[in-house]
Amino acid sequence: MLNKKKISRHTNLTAEQFANLGDGTVAYVKQILSEKAAQLFPQADGLKPGLRLFALLGADGSPILLTDSKDVAIANAWEQELEMVSVH
């Protein structure tokens, strides 16, 4: 019979360490409407309302790229050697 032991490792991170986790190495793609785009990308102000766009965001939520193509966002992450993660 197998002995199934649960192994748990806890690391205590400070708030600052947690905030910097994945900084500059991890990113995710988020679908947003053009109305929200200006909040993340001020230079995108004035976009036609109702457009579905894709934002490439850093691990901390910082904006990297705004595009109308999910594939372009992912390709840009690869070009920048960012590790893509799924956020639900």
Overview of the molecule:
By secondary structure, this protein is an alpha+beta fold. It has a domain at 24-84. 25% of the residues lie in helices and 25% in strands. It contains three helices and four strands. It has helices spanning 15-19, 34-40, 70-79, and strands spanning 26-33, 52-58, 63-67, 83-84. The radius of gyration is 17 Å and the shape is globular.
Quick gist of this model?
By secondary structure, the chain is α+β, with helices and mostly antiparallel strands. The chain has helices at 15-19, 34-40, 70-79; strands spanning 26-33, 52-58, 63-67, 83-84.
Give the topology, please.
Layout: H1 15-19, E1 26-33, H2 34-40, E2 52-58, E3 63-67, H3 70-79, E4 83-84
Parallel strand pairs: 1-4
Antiparallel strand pairs: 1-2, 2-3
Low-confidence stretches: none
Count of DSSP helices?
A: 3
User: What structural class should be given to the helix and strand makeup?
Assistant: alpha+beta
**Strand tally, please?**
4
Question: What is the strand content?
Answer: 25-35%
Main pleated-sheet profile: 4 strands, mixed
Q: H/E order of the elements? A: HEHEEHE
Helix % is 25-40%
What coarse outline follows from CA principal-axis ratios? Answer: globular
Q: What do the pLDDT scores average to?
A: 83
Strand order of the largest sheet: 3-2-1-4
- Rounded to the nearest angstrom, the distance between the terminal CA atoms is 37 Å
Q: What oligomeric state do these chains adopt?
A: single chain
Radius of gyration over alpha carbons? 17 Å
Keywords, separated by commas or semicolons:
88 residues, alpha+beta, four-stranded mixed sheet, 3 helices, 4 strands
